Amino acid sequence: MSARGRLGLFLVGAAAFAALFTAACFGLPSFGAEHHPYGERAVRAALGHHTANAIASVNFDLRAFDTLGEESILFAAVLGAVVLLRQTADERRTPPAPAAVHPPVRRFALLTLPVALLIGLYVIAHGQISPGGGFQGGVVAATALHLLYLAADYRALERIRPLALYEIGEAAGEFAYVVTGFAAVLAGSAFLANVLPLGTFATLSSGGTVIVLNAAVGVEVASGVVVLLARFLDQAVEIVLPDDGAGGGRDPGDDNSDDNSDGTDDGTDEEEPT
Amino acid sequence: MTVLPYPVAGWIFLIGVYGLVTSRNLIHAVGCLAVTQSSTYVLLLAVGYRRHATAPVYADAPTGSRVVDPVVQALALTDIVVGATVTALLLALVVQLRKRHGTVDPDALSELKG
Question: Which of A34, A86, A245, B34 has its C-alpha lying 20 to 30 A from A237's C-alpha?
Answer without folding.
Answer: B34
